[in-house]
Design goal:
By secondary structure, the protein is an alpha/beta fold. It is about 30% helix and about 20% strand. Helix 1 packs across helix 2.
Amino acid sequence: MNLCISENAEIMGACAANTGTQAIRDAIAERGEANIILATGASQFSMLAHLVEEPGIDWSRVTAFHLDEYVGIPSTHPASFRKYLKERFVDRVPGLRQFNFVNGDAVPLEAEIQRLNAAIRGRLIDVAFIGIGENGHLAFNDPPADFETEEPYIVVELDAKCRLQQVSEGWFARLADIPKQAISMSIKQILKSRMIVCTVPDARKQDAVYMALNAPVSPEAPCTILRGHPNCMLFLDYPAAGRILVRG
């Protein structure tokens, strides 16, 4: 895992977006198309703001996949990740070839899982833009995460620490309002990406960053699995790197 530590979240997001978009440009030059994965949450604000402004990308050749979504909430809900990505990405890159949203309120849910799995299975993913949760999760794969499933998308249970993070970030007013399940891209599917751009700002994430770099690789610490990826870039700001920086 390669580290890039920036003075603040704004610079961090710009660096992460620039790195990822170069992978997109390279894929289009190589194959005539690119496939990407996009995450949500406060950690992705700066990166996405810069991503949509990056020059020289033919978005008509780019297909995007949604990382995760709560079960049971509509796309109009303030905390919906579909709403988040539509406003911060899809509406700002006219001409995008396709965005594969996760419809967490689909009925029956199993049919939605099958649709998503069919859409992504066999696709070469050029870059996954992701973050790390306060509990060390990747996507909504809370500990203990399933490191073994080959299914691209799965239904997962959200643990208390993950749900409390959503309250602290202002997405929900109280814990009782947060769904207890989500549809999430699986760990193995994320790891199939040719490049992983992992953007992690804020002092709230410093324990998770320390975990990612130092804890034993285990389902109890999902982010540790990134250390085995051959092309993972971890972008931090100074507060997030608080536990790993050596100050003279």
